[in-house]
């Protein structure tokens, strides 16, 4: 069989992605200590499940290692045009699935809020929430997800008495993507440069931690889970790696 000419697509294999996620997890655990993940479907599902393998946390009560809960949200993006305002960005994303209020708890921090007030923004309040997706391209989806989850948390905090609020741990957010694509972003996130930047304002962190498995040039990425022919995907991936090695 002849070798088709390689295009400029990037072709990470399942193994490449697994390794990148494992490496990124070390910093996430040390720096952010997530209590739960919110995976943005469909691209965020596979990365979130792999990441969970590296993010076990100790249960305070039993001392046993516990898996982090993965919550799911579904977001779909409409076609966009340049020069959109903040509000317009919001209208380009459609929710196909969202967190349930009163969903199962992650670390127990929000349990009291849920028990007494019947809502806790899907278990986010008082927790370290890690939002997971496969790619940060235009940043539109991540911008929407972060801001909407933040709104839910603030609304819940506003609705509970000040003394209960004061006893809760802060709610903090982080983002993990397998790939952050270089290039212009259509939306901005208040990303911390270092943990020292973090400030808690009214019970919520004033910015977001940001982690990427790798930063890539703005070329199209073929994800293994999108491929009907995974063998061919792996073959082309190996071919590109061999060419790159030759070139270096
Ligand atoms: P962003 O929010 O992270 O900036 O990405 P953006 O909205 O621009 O992406 C819109 C859709 O395009 C997303 O799919 C995203 O996964 C996909 N996309 C962007 N860049 C790439 C790429 O290089 N390769 C591939 N394969 N997809 C890319 P979606 O609507 O969220 O669909 P789903 O797969 O998550 O269900
Ligand atoms: Mg997606």
From TrEMBL:
<dbReference type="GO" id="GO:0005737">
    <property type="term" value="C:cytoplasm"/>
</dbReference>
<dbReference type="GO" id="GO:0032264">
    <property type="term" value="P:IMP salvage"/>
</dbReference>
<dbReference type="GO" id="GO:0004422">
    <property type="term" value="F:hypoxanthine phosphoribosyltransferase activity"/>
</dbReference>
<dbReference type="GO" id="GO:0032263">
    <property type="term" value="P:GMP salvage"/>
</dbReference>
<protein>
    <recommendedName>
        <fullName>PRTase-like protein</fullName>
    </recommendedName>
</protein>
<dbReference type="InterPro" id="IPR029057">
    <property type="entry name" value="PRTase-like"/>
</dbReference>
<dbReference type="GO" id="GO:0032265">
    <property type="term" value="P:XMP salvage"/>
</dbReference>
<keyword id="KW-0328">Glycosyltransferase</keyword>
<keyword id="KW-0808">Transferase</keyword>
<dbReference type="GO" id="GO:0046100">
    <property type="term" value="P:hypoxanthine metabolic process"/>
</dbReference>
